[in-house]
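Q: What would this chain look like folded?
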Amino acid sequence: MSETKTERQVAAIELLNELLGDDVHLCRIDEHRSTLAARLATLRAQIETQHLQMTVIAQDRRHKYTYVAESNGRALVRAREVVKLVETVAEQVKDIVERTEKLNRNQKELTTFITRLERLRSFVENIDRLEKLMLGREYERIGSLLLATQQFAEQFQEMRERSFVGEQLGRFDYLQKMLQRQVLELFDETMRRRGSVNAAQSINLAHAAVVIDVLGEASQRALIRWYCDRQLGDYKDVFRGNRELANLESIPKRYAWLKRLMVVYEAEHAFIFPVEWKVDQVLCLDFCAVTSHDIAGVMQSFNGAKINLTLLQTAVQQTRSFEQFLHRKYPKNPGLSISLAFEPFLFYFIDSHDQALLKFKSRLPVKLTLADFDASNVLTSASELFLLFREILQDISELSVKKPLADLCKMFGSHLGTYSKYLEERLPRMGKKPFVSFDVRTLCVVLNTTDYCYLTTVSMAERIREIIHPHFSESVAFDGAQQDFLVHVSVGIGRLHLSISSTLDACWTLMSSISWSGLKSVGDHSAYVSQIQRTLADQQPIIRSTLVGSKHYVALCHRLATSIVSRFSDNVKKIKHLNDFAAQQLLVDLEALRIMLLDLLRLGDYGALRTPFAKLVASETADVEGFLKCVMAPTEPASVFVQNYLLVRADVEESKFLAVLEVKGIRRTTLYLDEFRSHVPKRPSEQGRELKFFRIDEHLKKILQAVKL
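A: My prediction, written as structure tokens:
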């Protein structure tokens, strides 16, 4: 407040200074006083006017505020009244809604009750109508009415506890039972008469079958069972009650009976039954079951007695043919089978074939002759054996592809093992003398036979696995016999090689008799090489022309190449003081032997088999060739000789180096051995031993020093 007053005083002073700032203005002070008085009066008048206006405005605002306050009060009272009114209306609406919902529920319950009552009335009326229709046997009208009545009955099942409803449901259940019995009696009465069913009867039975279809699966099964028993009743009486027909000869008559029965069914009865019932299939299934039981009884009646296998085979084949007829008519129905009844008794065939194979074995020649060889250089007995196997397999596979066929495979395996031993005994054995030409040919023929048996056995096993039931496929195995055949092939090639090697003994004896140390010149290959060539030339045509295929002949050539080069090498290493001329002559002989060995496969269609054989010959002869070249090398100085040896042979085996020194006739072997050892890297084990010895020496030195101290 004081600050405001001061500001006003300052403003007044400034105004006075402005008006009276100099003498001129002071002289006119009266004028200024009048001016100020007039101005003051004007300001007071303005202030008064403003005050009056403010007073009027304040009064207006006071009146307006009072009016607004009064209006708000009245509005608040009105609003409270409206709220109360709304709450009252809401309660009334809620009450109305509840009453409406209750009325709707009552109306719905009343409607449901009326509907149920109407349905119950219809249910009772339908039962009454069904009873009347049953009396008149009007099955055409009963079917649809029965279906509707069943639907009503399902709706009233939950109300069965109520006396009236339970009484009507029980009445309806009894009616259905009586209806089923009545329909079955109708079928029995109609089909019991002799002769065919006429059209009117068929239509009536068809309507009755529809009624059974509506009654449910139990009634369907009962009617189908009655029909099948009825149709097969005469069949059972004829074939079970007559001993003359209860045998294998009457098997075709049984199947003809069913075929006639199916003709009658398709002509007269197929129209009666609904298609989805498949009555014809059920009839065939029952026929198969009855016939299988009868056949099992017929087979058991033999009780170990002699049986006509031809008749049994015919019966089984006729049964399989009839099954194929049924499977074509009704595919994908495994129950249509009768031949399973024969399977437990098919051992008669297997025993018979076993006896036939035993007789075949007894006829096998003990000593082979040219008459026992066929045109393909295989024993005729092998071809006959597998021909028998093929015929037996064909017979049994036509009868069954399950356990009997698996048992047959076991029998085949046994006889294959027996024949394998027979072939083993027919392989010629080496005596004091080499084989003659017939022995060589016999050996080759037996080799061909064992190989033929092995390949045919593998093929036969694959064929059986294709036709046998998958459950028994694992039982098809001839591994034992196949392994025996392979062993016999190896043994036969070994004996053939041994025979040829024995004929070459004279050639190697001739080689050993040559004075190699005194040889003064080098010429063409030696006489023993020519003798080896002639010996192989005598044996080769028989072997090559008799052995079937190339693999066995090539295997024999592999063994011959290895043994001939090895024998040549052994003879070379036995020579003492071999000079350069002798070494050169032996190199010429070795080259002649190499060419001779390669010529073993020169003729004939051996194709890619020549390359591995050529590599084998080169590998075998290379070692001997290197040995001879080392023998030809100068021995002085020793270091150069050792270096040449390692360069040519690249072999660090000390024994082989000693063999070269021995053939050279060098006595100062210690010098050469020391030089050889100096060029050969030491083995880890030898280095360890030297280190161990060094450590022991150091330990001894320390002990001696301690003793001296």
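The chain has four domains: 2-105, 139-311, 346-490, 504-632.
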